[in-house]
Amino acid sequence: MHKLAEPTMRRETRLADRSEAIAFVVMLVFVAAAPFFAYPLFLMQVLCFALFACAFNLLIGYVGLLSFGHALYFGWASYVSAHAAKVWGLTPELAILAGTVAAAVLGLLAGSLAIRRQGIYFAMITLALAQMMFFFALQVKFTGGEDGIQAVPRGRLFGLIDLADTMTMYVVVVAIFLAGFLFIHRVIHSPFGEVLKAIRENEARAISLGYKTDRYKLVAFVLSATLVGVAGATKAIVLQLASLTDVNWPMSGEVVLMTLVGGLGTIFGPVVGAFVILTMQYKLAPVGEWVLVIQGVIFVACVLLFRRGIVGEIAARLRIRL
Amino acid sequence: MKKIAALTAFATIFAFGSASAQQVAVKVGVLTDMSSLYADVTGPGSFLAARMAAADFMKDHPDVKVEVLSGDHQNKADVGSQIANQWYDVGGVDMIIDVPNSGVALAIAEVTRQKNKVFIGSGPASSDLTGPKCSPNTVHWTYDTWMLANGTGKAIVKTGGDTWFFLTSDYAFGHALERDTSAVVEANGGKVLGKVRHPLNTNDFSSFLLQAQSSKAKVIGLANAGGDTINSIKQAAEFGIVKGGQNLAGLLVFASDINALGLPTAQGLIFTETWYWDLNDASRAWTKRWHAERNATGKVPTMNMAGVYAGTLHYLKAVAALKSDADGRAVVAQMKKMPTDDPLFGKGEIRADGRKLHPAYLFEVKKPEESKYPGDFYKVRATIPANEAFRPLKDGGCPLVSG
């Protein structure tokens, strides 16, 4: 048995690695070529949301935890990084770091409360905490209430490179996105990631095997929140503004939508999902609030017709892992 | 000031030197709320107003080609600034007008300054646009929070409403309005008896209104906006507050709100605006055209739409004078240099900090039996001259003025 099984498995992993590598190269080419065809500011936003969705996917796709309050980390990271860049005058990399740390701390606090419950209760606790912090953001002085933090300087990276130039900023955002993406890829394929998947499949069995699942879940939660923070903090620097939109609950819903449309539990899915949803919002902006209706229809269609999402369906058709 | 004048002179010479009698193409973007809470106050009506201004202008200046487009910022600062960035970078838009929602407007003002284009605010309320956050690329046309607080507060205290109670929307905009109005009331010898804060988008105002009623204040100041104002006025009518002898003072009320409320509910409400369709013959004629093209029954034009029309017209005049729209700062400087004159706001001027000056009016909503025809809503209680209606230049803290 062993002698037979081992080479097959190795071949499968190799195949999987190859399909992932090809997909990664396709993505790289796309990201490199895109600014010459599309509007760079829009692309940077897509990349921020792609990272946001990837980080969210780490939690729902690989641990099976549906958090409905990820806007909390996204929005607060953007507030903290905007404040750091504007008021404290930090360089952009330090501002993004400050936002990331804030998101990590918030993730630790919210996570340690939320992971004590499963399923819908978990989702509700995350939502409640996120809404609490939304109202906090609405009231405290430094967020500027409904005005948000405006005119955030992009500054100079490491005090040297001027980010006011759109292409320079684009390169930086791509670097941040790729770093986050590869980190998530590494986490998923590490022994730690295997345990996460085991918890997703059957938590009781994982416990019986001696894993302290709560700890794994908490670490995954904090990791996810931290990476979401990177995305939020970067977005604040790119768009030069942090606003209530990013902390409000529709944002938490939007990231669920992106992940589902792209493909839950696939590593490329959230990227595709973010691209699809944002392009839609962008192209459909003239019809205003109807965007939400159209998004709702797509959500329903997605759940009914291709439940694995775009990338998930492709992967299943071609019998590869993406 | 000297610097700006010199810059204008230079830009003028440059423009006259290079571009003689060739066609100038101008693109105006109406960035507004097309579908949500401010859509009735601005929205499609503003878009139409800008198109009317463009048509009127092109009739007199066939050498200038004006194109008007519209965008929906969905009341999100990031959506708004993304549209603005794209309009300026790839859409070839030279000027953005309207932008209700102060948060979005502040973001647009910043983008506009960076790209050296022109932003004319008609919809936003925040007086910060011509205060600490003023910009050489911004003109604030129709109204602002200082003018609302001052106009309504002062006039009411002077006509005997000297004790106040505030019903305030619990966020920055409401707080600012309440703070400014309290200061005006007290400076004019009035007294603030108390205040209560309600959350944004509230449906049930009963406990807040009961507090206001039992305060025995002569005037209940509504420091809120949109749906909250409408709901609080409706419910105040149910509690018989106005019938009981207390007056409601709306700090931010538009003609379309009165239209939505109906006169039986809104009667007796006192507030300040800078334009009303039934003020004079020119406004009435304009409104008739607006109605014909808007083609929607039961809508009335608001002061924001009038501001969009007048602002677009004045901008185009400045562009025609410069024969160029390339340098936003120069166009705004030219706009400030030329006195304004349009059928809706009459003669006026734009101050160094970007504030457009015109008279404001204290209106009272008519009783149903006083209203003779559809849209006959207001009677003028007082006219506040242009030099008293807006914040004095030195109090704004605008860096353009001191430097």
Helices and strands, with pairings:
The complex is a heterodimer of chains A (322) and B (403).
Chain A: H1 2-33, H2 40-60, H3 71-86, H4 92-114, H5 119-139, E1 156-157, E2 161-162, H6 166-188, H7 191-201, H8 203-208, H9 213-239, H10 249-262, H11 269-283, H12 290-305, H13 309-318
Antiparallel strand pairs in A: 1-2
Chain B: H1 2-18, E1 24-32, H2 43-60, E2 64-72, H3 77-91, E3 95-98, H4 102-115, E4 118-121, E5 138-140, H5 145-158, E6 163-169, H6 172-187, E7 191-198, H7 206-214, E8 219-223, H8 226-238, E9 247-250, H9 255-261, H10 263-266, E10 270-273, H11 281-294, H12 303-322, H13 328-337, E11 340-342, E12 346-350, E13 356-357, E14 360-365, E15 378-384, H14 386-389, H15 399-402
Parallel strand pairs in B: 1-2, 1-3, 3-4, 4-5, 6-7, 6-8, 8-9
Antiparallel strand pairs in B: 10-14, 11-12, 12-13, 14-15
Could you walk me through the main structural features you see in this protein, from its secondary elements to its overall organization?
- The complex is a heterodimer of chains A (322) and B (403).
- Chain A is 73% helix and 1% strand.
- With 322 residues, chain A is an all-alpha fold.
- Chain A has a domain at 39-248.
- The longest helix of chain A has 32 residues, at 2-33.
- Chain A is globular.
- The model of chain A has no long low-confidence stretch (mean pLDDT 89).
- Helices cover 44% and strands 20% of the residues of chain B.
- Chain B has 15 helices and 15 strands.
- In chain B, strands 2-1-3-4-5 form a five-stranded parallel β-sheet, with helices on both faces. Chain B has a four-stranded parallel β-sheet with strand order 7-6-8-9, sandwiched between helices.
- In chain B, α2 runs parallel beside α12, α5 (145-158) packs parallel to α6 (172-187) and α8 (226-238) packs across α9 (255-261).
- The longest helix of chain B is centred in the last third of the chain and has 20 residues, at 303-322.
- The chains are: A mainly alpha (322), B alpha/beta (403).
- At the A-B interface, α2 of A face β2, α3 and α4 of B.
